[in-house]
Design a protein that fits this description.
It contains 13 helices and 13 strands. By secondary structure, the protein is an alpha/beta fold.
Length: 359
């Protein structure tokens, strides 16, 4: 069964398709290719699995493939160059469509390359990890990391469409599946308590890759994100709620050097629990709610304790977060499960207590 959602951005609106066996389907992808040229960007892990199938969907186009090394450590300004070099070498024009076939790293890098090549060309997202399907492929955030901060260089640049084939999750390694579930849990925490309750009751089905449960979780997550992005495309307000746990989590990722020791979803899982602890110290949520959050993270095989990072290092890295405005750090905290807020009105001493507890 095909699910079709819409990211409503007026003239730049685009669909999200959620189904099975869509990868090689020309009928679904061809309406979103504006010219005759297509460049599929993927990595060394995904290419042997799905590149040939996706190429079949673009048989009627002039199609090239760009295969990058796999890993967060390649998500950098230097890592973008192989994409741009090949586009230039092939003399691809302003009507070229870039296709991101991979996880969040490939999606972010391909989208950023599309945003800057010839001052902007079209691109399509075909996410192959759960995390990319429910989060990074939707909403138009593109970019790369910097040694001093994650995702600090990039652009808001929307795709033509997002094609989600749930079949690809059958080849996803367990650790990557768990990391994706962290972002799914996030949607329940920030604005959907009913979904959070459903997750508590169905976490085992997700872990067992039950097709129906996964499709439902992806649909609800994408719909929740699409609604938020439609209301606040460039994160001037409500969209910042999607960063629950990310200020802490990005500090973890930056401190660890993007070398794969900590996946994005793993760092965000710890970050969400730290945000919950800080919310508890402000008497905004209850101990029972914090325990529910910790329990579901543990059931999803996600870490709940960060690596050894000093309080000083945490504070330094958090000071470089994108949510620092006019020198003031803003955090996403919880008023209850299902209601998050973006606030600068937190007690720095309570933040210090949380960091000391987890350092």
């Amino acid at each position: 069964m095909m699910e079709k959602l819409l990211v409503d951005l007026g003239e730049r609106s685009y669909p999200i398709f959620i189904t099975q066996n869509i990868l090689g389907n020309t009928e679904w992808v061809s309406p979103y290719v504006k010219g005759k040229q297509v460049a599929i960007v993927t990595n060394e892990t995904i290419a042997p699995l799905y590149l040939e199938t996706v190429q079949q969907a673009f048989m009627g186009f002039d199609c090239i493939s760009i295969i990058l090394p796999d890993g967060e450590q390649y998500k950098s300004l230097a890592g973008i160059n192989p994409i741009l070099d090949r586009l230039m070498q092939e003399q691809l024009d302003r009507k070229v469509t870039l296709v991101a076939l991979g996880g969040g790293v490939i999606g972010d890098m391909t989208g950023f390359a599309a945003a800057i090549y010839r001052r902007g060309v079209n691109f399509i997202q075909i996410p192959t990890t759960l995390l990319a399907q429910v989060d990074s492929s939707v909403g138009g955030k593109t970019g790369v990391n910097h040694p001093l901060g994650k995702n600090m260089i990039g652009a808001f640049y929307q795709p033509q469409c997002v094609m989600i084939d749930t079949n690809v999750l059958s080849t996803l390694e367990d650790r990557q599946l768990y990391a994706g579930i962290a972002e799914v849990i996030k949607y329940g925490l920030i604005n959907d308590s009913v979904f959070f309750n459903w997750l508590e009751n169905n976490i085992e089905q997700l872990l067992q890759r039950d097709a129906q449960a996964l499709a439902y979780a992806i649909k609800i997550s994408c719909q929740d994100k699409a609604n938020i992005v439609a209301a606040d495309e460039k994160e001037s307000g409500k969209r910042a709620l999607l960063n629950l746990g990310h200020t802490f989590g990005h500090a973890i990722e930056t401190a660890m050097g993007y070398d794969g020791k900590w996946l994005h979803g793993e760092a965000i899982a710890v970050g969400m629990l730290m945000a919950a602890e800080l919310s508890l110290l402000h008497d905004w949520i209850t101990e029972e709610e914090v325990q529910r959050i910790e329990n579901i993270l543990q059931k999803a095989h996600l870490p709940t304790v960060p690596p050894k990072i000093t309080v000083k290092q945490f504070l330094s890295l958090m000071a470089g977060d994108k949510k620092v405005l006019d020198g003031q750090l803003h955090l996403v905290l919880l008023k209850r499960i299902g209601k998050a807020v973006v606030t600068k009105e937190f007690d720095p001493e309570l933040l210090q207590q949380v960091l000391v507890k987890y350092a």
